[in-house]
């Protein structure tokens, strides 16, 4: 069955049962509207706000914490219960705020359709809402109009062209015509007789028949793909969920063991009262609260939010918080070409005139730059052939340049805009040129002639300025400009012209030829066959959408960081390869695949080819999806950048979708995880660096929280194991958990990024948040913290005022059991007093040792004195605040009553400092030994 592009206009009208002159009748249009539905893109109904908020509680660790809060409240410990609930609610509110704006992509797609369209119905011109258009409607389009639905051109002016970059990735406007295309399945960009919803007319006029509307359009198919793509959890979310469950189970087991040991001890001591059982249960619940880092989700969220603000300063706006860390393990960046790696501004880079090739400097439409000949700067005024070629480009031109501040934009075709910009670099302006030689007649571009001509009057004479395809135009030339004058063209001249054309085309440049024909008197007619012959060849003008100047360095950074750069574009393969080679990510042995090539590959074959394919050209949205999926099937974390509607499905499918902020469509922005506000590839690399740093910092405060919690668990577990009194009360555990853990953890979340972080390979998405080595480090550091707290408790409870440490060690080594037992036997009249002071001592040492330990967590291999004690001022401030609160806990009467603490003497505070700083000095000694004996290879 023939496709729309293969049919003639007559066949199209017959298939659609419509009139190509009078349009549809109103009753017929209404019937078709009922049959096909409105010309709109369907929009999925978003989740209500209450459900978004409720989903924030759909987490295993959150439910455990809520359960702990309920039990604490039931037992009358309202301080514990309220503290837990406050942390849970804080996490939920932050998550809700971030997701409230989720999934507006289809609404943004709808905005691309023009609200009203010019249509012919009942043989009359009407303006109707675009939503009411149906297949078979006859629409009229002109420059500036948005195409309201997929349509087939039936008639047009010679210069009718459409900008399709947002849909196909093609950087230049596409000339459209009504001729059938015999190919079975040409790429979208090559369907030159079809118009697509969401594109815009840049020049000329046309009439077209609507062939598909609503979700059946190419834009609608993309909308359908967006609905079909599900977003997965980020690596950090997955790992935290898995780790949280494992942690809860482990902590639950330890808490249960402690509870059982306490019950056994109580039973051996003479029985268990109801009050004793309740006290033991409350201690177990408090230990569970201390063991489970309930602040971890909130701290992760806050750290990601703070990282977000830093990234905004580097021109990267994160739309979804967890995506910050996903950048840190990105191993592939799939990038669109137009507007992302390139400027999306056609720029003349070379002019061949008078037998010489001139290089043109400067990029973009801004006329900043000049001309080089053999590498030396020259003035166009001294080279008449160069000046003549540039003048031809201006006087055979239908575009315009405008300036707003320092920004230059084109009005019309980008190719013609590039010619105007190049001429301005030689001082040739469009306004002055047209004033001196006013337009008489225009022969528009025609795809069959492949030329365009403008006839202008010059002081009574007339001159035809022509531009077109080099092979066609050169064949119509009889003379050539040489040193400011015309001489007969030879076969050798034609060979040199075509050789130069081939050389420029090999560099992926678009090459136009320009020529003139002076008339002593007006021609007999302005027919193309009369005017466009006996021409004087003026030169070749070569242009390209140039690569961004700063992108090459960014791609070098990606290579150093172990990140692959892949170009996926709708442009031609030769152009894409030239850009990739100039940017340094296409070399010998690499291959480029076209959309046609991809159609011949299975999913397995494509997965096997992606490693050696850095360039994909002339691809469709479906192809982009396949490429992203192929990389992901190999276990890679993929970032997909893009700006057009055609990029949106792949942007959403990728692990991290990156949209361009300036040139990006609303569609792409709404489905993306991150928006680069300056459209600069360098900002993406900066975001990767920040993402890596943020993940490092997340690991730092996870390490801090869990090693501190390990210390708290071990204090309680070991004391129960050795038959000691409970060294910490439940309320004291909660105080440490809230005051000492929280602030330093937040400060570690904004630790300065390691300056060598982009020298590392990407983190594996399968890497655990807490590796086995890091777990051993944490348990070991927690054991040191626990030992210091228990040592302080033991010293006050068993030794202070009655024996010395040396006495105890002496009895132990001498095997004097009676002496050892007498030392550790506490008189009944002193037991309560000593226990209160011992608990205060153990409590303060445990709190202060965690403050010291926070500095260990900044770096596990480099000494704090090397990275700088004050290089993280927020951590210094956090520990000072923590110390201040803990001092209040033992000296403020209110807190003494609540926490059941006692004031310590100066000597005891000195002892606290000695015990509490031990974890820090032990780690510093370990770092030195690691450097000396293992070369720093021992790391978590």
How would you characterize this protein structure?
- The structure is a single chain.
- The chain folds into five domains: 4-43 and 108-228, Calcium-transporting ATPase, cytoplasmic transduction domain A (Distorted Sandwich); 49-102; 285-308 and 692-752 and 773-934, Calcium-transporting ATPase, transmembrane domain (Up-down Bundle), CATH 1.20.1110.10; 317-341 and 549-679, 3-Layer(aba) Sandwich (Rossmann fold), CATH 3.40.50; 347-544, Calcium-transporting ATPase, cytoplasmic domain N (3-Layer(aba) Sandwich), CATH 3.40.1110.
- Residues 101-114 have low confidence and may be disordered.
- Strands 12, 13, 14, 15, 18, 19, 20, 21, 22, 23 and 24 form an eleven-stranded mixed sheet that branches. The chain has an eight-stranded mixed sheet with strand order 10-30-29-28-11-25-27-26, with helices on both faces. Strands 2-1-3-9-4-7 form a six-stranded antiparallel sheet.
- The protein is elongated and about 130 Å long.
- The protein has 36 helices and 30 strands.
- The chain is of the alpha+beta class and 940 residues long.
Q: What does the secondary structure layout of this molecule look like, with pairings?
A:
Blueprint: H1 9-16, H2 26-36, H3 49-55, H4 60-74, H5 78-99, H6 105-111, E1 116-121, E2 124-129, E3 138-142, E4 150-156, E5 161-163, H7 165-168, E6 174-175, E7 194-195, E8 200-203, E9 205-212, H8 218-228, H9 235-268, H10 274-291, H11 296-313, E10 316-318, H12 323-328, E11 332-335, H13 337-341, E12 347-353, E13 356-360, E14 371-373, E15 376-378, H14 384-395, E16 400-404, E17 407-411, H15 414-424, H16 430-436, E18 439-446, E19 451-458, E20 461-468, H17 470-475, E21 477-482, E22 485-488, H18 491-506, E23 510-519, H19 528-531, E24 535-544, H20 551-560, E25 564-568, H21 573-583, E26 592-594, H22 595-599, H23 603-609, E27 615-617, H24 621-633, E28 638-642, H25 648-653, E29 656-660, H26 666-671, E30 674-676, H27 681-721, H28 730-748, H29 772-799, H30 805-814, H31 817-823, H32 828-856, H33 864-867, H34 873-891, H35 893-899, H36 906-934
Helix pairs in contact: 3-5, 4-5, 4-10, 5-11, 9-10, 9-27, 10-28, 11-27, 14-15, 23-24, 27-28, 27-29, 27-32, 28-32, 28-34, 29-32, 29-36, 30-31, 32-34, 32-36, 34-35
């Amino acid at each position: 069955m023939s496709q729309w592009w293969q049919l003639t206009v007559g066949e199209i009208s017959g298939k659609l049962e419509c009139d190509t002159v009078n349009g549809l009748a109103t009753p017929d249009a209404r019937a078709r509207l009922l049959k096909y539905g409105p010309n709109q893109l369907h929009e999925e109904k978003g989740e209500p706000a209450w459900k978004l908020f409720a989903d924030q509680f759909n987490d295993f660790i959150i439910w455990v914490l809520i359960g702990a809060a309920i039990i604490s409240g039931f037992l009358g410990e309202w301080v514990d219960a309220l503290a837990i609930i406050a942390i849970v609610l804080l996490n939920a509110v932050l998550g809700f705020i971030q997701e409230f704006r989720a999934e507006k992509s289809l609404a943004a797609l709808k905005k691309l359709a023009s609200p009203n369209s010019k249509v012919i119905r009942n043989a009359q011109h009407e303006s109707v809402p675009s939503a009411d258009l149906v297949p078979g409607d006859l629409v009229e389009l002109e420059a500036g109009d948005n195409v309201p639905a997929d349509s087939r051109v039936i008639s047009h002016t010679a210069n009718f062209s459409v900008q399709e970059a947002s849909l196909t990735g093609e950087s230049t406007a596409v000339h459209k015509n009504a001729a059938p295309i015999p190919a079975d399945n040409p790429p979208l960009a090559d369907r030159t007789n079809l118009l697509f919803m969401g594109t815009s007319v840049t020049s000329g006029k046309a009439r077209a028949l609507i062939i598909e509307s609503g979700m059946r359009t190419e834009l609608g198919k993309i909308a359908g793909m967006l609905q079909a793509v599900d977003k997965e959890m980020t690596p950090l979310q997955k790992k935290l969920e898995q780790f949280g469950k494992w942690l809860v189970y482990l902590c639950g087991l330890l808490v249960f063991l402690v509870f059982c040991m306490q019950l056994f001890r109580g039973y051996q001591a003479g029985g268990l009262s109801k009050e004793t059982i309740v006290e033991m249960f409350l201690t177990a619940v408090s230990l569970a609260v201390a063991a489970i880092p309930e602040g971890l989700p909130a701290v992760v969220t806050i750290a990601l939010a703070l990282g977000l603000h830093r990234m905004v300063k580097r021109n990267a706006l994160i739309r979804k918080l967890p995506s910050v860390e996903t950048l840190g393990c990105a191993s592939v960046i799939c990038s669109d070409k137009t507007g992302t790696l390139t400027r999306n501004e056609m720029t003349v880079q070379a002019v061949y005139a008078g037998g010489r090739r001139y290089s043109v400097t400067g990029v973009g439409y801004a006329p900043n730059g000049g001309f080089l000949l053999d590498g030396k700067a020259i003035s166009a005024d001294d080279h008449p052939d160069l000046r003549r070629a540039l003048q031809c480009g201006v006087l055979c031109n239908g575009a315009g340049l405008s300036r707003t501040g320092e920004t230059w934009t084109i009005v019309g075709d980008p190719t013609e805009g590039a010619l105007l910009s190049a001429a301005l670099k030689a001082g040739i302006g469009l306004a002055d040129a047209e004033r001196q030689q006013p337009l008489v007649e225009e022969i528009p571009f025609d795809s069959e002639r492949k030329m365009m001509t403008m006839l202008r009057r010059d002081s009574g004479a007339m001159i035809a300025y022509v531009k077109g395809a080099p092979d066609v135009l050169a064949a119509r030339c009889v003379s050539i400009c040489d040193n400011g004058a015309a001489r007969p063209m030879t076969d050798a001249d034609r060979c040199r012209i075509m050789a130069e054309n081939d050389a420029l085309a090999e560099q992926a440049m678009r090459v136009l030829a320009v020529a003139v024909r002076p008339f002593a008197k007006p021609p007999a007619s302005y027919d193309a066959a009369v005017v466009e012959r006996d021409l004087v060849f003026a030169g070749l003008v070569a242009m390209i959408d140039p690569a961004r100047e700063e992108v090459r360095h960014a791609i070098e950074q990606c290579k150093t960081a172990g990140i692959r750069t892949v170009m996926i574009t709708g442009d031609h393969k030769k152009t894409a390869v030239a850009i990739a080679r100039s940017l340094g990510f296409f070399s010998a042995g690499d291959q480029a695949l076209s959309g046609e090539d991809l159609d011949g590959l299975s999913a397995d074959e494509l997965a096997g080819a992606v490693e050696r394919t850095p360039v994909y050209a002339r691809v469709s949205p479906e192809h982009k999806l396949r490429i992203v999926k192929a990389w992901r099937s190999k276990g890679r974390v993929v970032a997909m950048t893009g700006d057009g509607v055609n990029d949106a499905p792949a942007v959403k499918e990728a692990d991290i979708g990156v949209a361009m902020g300036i040139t990006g469509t609303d569609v792409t922005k709404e489905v993306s995880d991150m928006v680069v506000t300056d459209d600069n590839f360098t900002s993406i690399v900066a975001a990767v660096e920040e993402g890596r740093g943020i993940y490092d910092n997340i690991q730092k405060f996870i390490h801090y929280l869990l090693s501190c919690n390990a210390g708290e668990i071990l204090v309680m577990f070991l004391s129960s194991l050795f038959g000691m009194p409970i060294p910490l009360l439940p309320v004291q555990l909660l105080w440490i958990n809230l005051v000492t853990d929280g602030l330093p953890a937040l400060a570690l979340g904004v630790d300065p990024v390691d300056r060598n972080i982009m020298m590392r390979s990407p983190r594996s998405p399968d890497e655990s948040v807490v590796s086995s080595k890091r777990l051993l480090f944490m348990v070991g550091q927690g054991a040191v913290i626990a030992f210091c707290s228990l040592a302080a408790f033991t010293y006050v409870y068993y030794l202070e005022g009655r024996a010395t440490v040396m006495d105890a060690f002496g009895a132990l080594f001498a095997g004097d059991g009676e002496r050892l037992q007498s030392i550790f036997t506490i008189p009944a009249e002193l037991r309560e007093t000593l226990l209160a002071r011992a608990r205060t001592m153990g409590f303060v040492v445990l709190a202060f040792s965690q403050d010291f330990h926070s500095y260990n967590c900044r770096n596990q291999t480099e000494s704090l004195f090397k990275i700088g004690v004050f290089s993280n001022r927020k951590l210094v401030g956090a520990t000072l605040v923590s110390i201040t609160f803990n001092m209040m806990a033992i000296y403020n009467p209110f807190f003494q009553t609540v926490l059941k603490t006692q004031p310590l003497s100066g000597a005891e505070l000195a002892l606290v400092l000695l015990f509490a700083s031990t974890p820090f000095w032990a780690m510093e000694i370990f770092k030195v030994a690691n450097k000396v004996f293992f070369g720093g290879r021992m790391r978590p």
